[in-house]
Amino acid sequence: MEALKKALICIVLASAGQQRSRMLGTLFKDERCQKLPCYHILEKMHLDRIIRHNELTEFQNMLQPHQQATTSDGW
């Protein structure tokens, strides 16, 4: 399960493209991913739905320090 969680986080953080879309679909269809705490983010990204700020904050809390990049404008 830990490997699936890390894969899900990597896919969410990856740049947009066809390969990422394919992987989002693959993880979305995997029943084991439904048990992960960040599954709702995967679901919304795969279905092109809006991710609310509180959901994004919850996801951000799961990230490792090296995954939390901050741009010059603070995002």
From TrEMBL:
Gene Ontology cellular component annotations, sorted alphabetically: COP9 signalosome; cytosol
Domain of life: Eukaryota
PANTHER family on file: 26S PROTEASOME NON-ATPASE REGULATORY SUBUNIT 12/COP9 SIGNALOSOME COMPLEX SUBUNIT 4, COP9 SIGNALOSOME COMPLEX SUBUNIT 4
Protein's name according to its UniProt entry: Uncharacterized protein
Organism whose genome encodes this protein: Scylla paramamosain (Mud crab)
